[in-house]
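Assess this one:

_____
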Amino acid sequence: MNLYADYHTHTSYSHAKGTVEENIQSAIKANLKEIGIAEHGPQTLFVGVSNKKFENLYDEIISLRDKYPEIKILFNIEANLLDYEGNIDLPPFVENKVDMLLLGFHPNIVPSSKSFPMVTNNLLSRNLGLRKERTRWYNTQGLIKAMKKYDISLITHPGHKVDVDTKQLAKACAETNTALEINCKHGMKIKDFVDIAKSEGVKFIVSSDAHHPNEVGEFSKGISIIKKLNIPKSMIVNSERST
């Protein structure tokens, strides 16, 4: 299976190694047709990208599009779920410019009064085994509400680090035309819901989640997951249909 795009890559704008241009050069070497720079939303603890940095990143991407016309360079974001009401940290500037809106559920977000119940529940569930069913239900509802509020292209690494009802999530993805990620770093969680996804007609996107230029377009683990779980090529958004 050939994959033509890597929509989820990080750079030194956040906590990754390498520049935007180095990621692009790696994507070209990997014969990709498209690459997305998807930095973390501003409320990611310690590594979130500020509004001003997103403006700088956008300007850099615009400039590099002229320099590398042979590849499509997308200005993406990996936003965070902030609370159980489905709010996310999507800056107005990014919202008006973003090519693909990715949503991740990360436990390490900047605490606030609205996020407190979500952060607390997940800490108690993960570390002490408390409120597990309740937390799982609320986590899932938060993601579903976000998908109904925003035009989200992709849910990143579903079920990684936080517990969600992946079957309910897959059904909601089908209703909102949101893809689920096969993450080449944290991908095997999808085995819990791939059958539901198949029956509901959910699409998948394979991503490297690269944190170093050398990882851009490195899909071997994702392709292995696809083969192991017998996911049809027609369900993979970024697959070459002619191969």
Summary: The radius of gyration is 17 Å. Residues 180 and 204 are 5 Å apart (CA to CA). The chain has a mean pLDDT of 93.
